[in-house]
């Protein structure tokens, strides 16, 4: 009986040694294969992303140093189920800090064609500013995002203190976002009203017809800016 126990013990020890050696050989093989070396190089030196891309994301919106979080698949519906809201989709860099420091926040709303007035508002109000904006379709949304980017790059007051909220007609929520940021390099920071006037000329006739038939949802926008 004692001899059988010893034999089983020796066999177990032998198997353990063989398995350990086998695992070591496999590990060395994976470490020094050519494929693995290539993978390590790729991880250590990832390719640089293209600069100033034209965005064609389905649902999402992001670009390098642009701190915007807008996912068209998310948002919330209003009580009438006619509009979709996106709260704080683009917050100022100091907005959260200012919101804690100040007891009063300036809340306002605007359509795209009047958004240039935000420049003057931000010059006279030193606290946080909450702005609800309305876009009537995909082309107007793209122009809106481009113009907000222009304002944030040209106006430090807006970049730091303004938080943007968005309202879209539920029946006209775009499936994708397509913004060409290359256009900003040709825009004059000192002429926000003129710049906007040129941009709204690119709104499609179909969107214009829809806006003429549907009044600006002022009462709905109040619930977004609060």
Automatic annotation (TrEMBL):
Keyword ATP-binding: no
InterPro entries per UniProt: B4GAT1
Entry keyword set: Glycoprotein, Glycosyltransferase, Golgi apparatus, Manganese, Membrane, Metal-binding, Signal-anchor, Transferase, Transmembrane, Transmembrane helix
Gene Ontology CC entries for this record: Golgi membrane
Subcellular location: Golgi apparatus membrane
Pathway assignment: Protein modification; protein glycosylation
Membrane-related topology note: Single-pass type II membrane protein
Names of required cofactors: Mn(2+)
One Pfam family named in its UniProt record: Glyco_transf_49
Keyword Lipid metabolism among UniProt keywords: no
GO MF annotation list: glucuronosyltransferase activity; metal ion binding
Transmembrane segments: 12-32
Reaction equations catalysed: 3-O-[beta-D-Xyl-(1->4)-Rib-ol-P-Rib-ol-P-3-beta-D-GalNAc-(1->3)-beta-D-GlcNAc-(1->4)-(O-6-P-alpha-D-Man)]-Thr-[protein] + UDP-alpha-D-glucuronate = 3-O-[beta-D-GlcA-(1->3)-beta-D-Xyl-(1->4)-Rib-ol-P-Rib-ol-P-3-beta-D-GalNAc-(1->3)-beta-D-GlcNAc-(1->4)-(O-6-P-alpha-D-Man)]-Thr-[protein] + UDP + H(+)
Gene Ontology terms describing biological process: protein O-linked glycosylation via mannose
Annotated family: Belongs to the glycosyltransferase 49 family.
Name of protein: Beta-1,4-glucuronyltransferase 1
């Amino acid at each position: 009986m004692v001899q059988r126990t010893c034999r089983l013990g020796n066999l177990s020890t032998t198997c353990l040694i063989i398995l350990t050696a086998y695992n070591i050989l496999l590990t060395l093989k994976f470490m020094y294969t050519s494929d693995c070396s290539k993978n390590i190089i790729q991880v250590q030196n990832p390719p640089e992303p293209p600069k100033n891309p034209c965005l064609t994301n389905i649902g999402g919106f992001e670009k390098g140093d642009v701190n915007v979080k807008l996912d068209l698949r998310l948002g919330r519906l209003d009580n009438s189920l006619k509009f979709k809201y996106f709260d704080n989709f683009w917050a100022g860099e100091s907005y959260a800090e200012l919101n804690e420091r100040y007891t009063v926040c300036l809340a306002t709303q605007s359509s795209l064609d009047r958004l240039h007035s935000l420049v003057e508002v931000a010059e006279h109000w030193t606290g946080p500013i909450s702005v609800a904006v309305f876009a009537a379709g995909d082309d107007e949304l793209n122009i809106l995002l481009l113009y907000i980017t222009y304002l944030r790059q040209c106006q430090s007051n807006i970049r730091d203190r303004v938080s943007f909220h968005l309202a879209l007609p539920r029946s006209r929520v775009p499936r994708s976002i397509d913004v060409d940021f290359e256009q900003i390099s040709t825009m004059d920071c000192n002429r926000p009203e003129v710049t906007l006037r040129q941009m709204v000329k690119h709104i499609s006739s179909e969107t214009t017809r829809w806006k003429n038939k549907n009044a600006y949802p002022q009462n709905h926008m109040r619930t977004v800016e609060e």
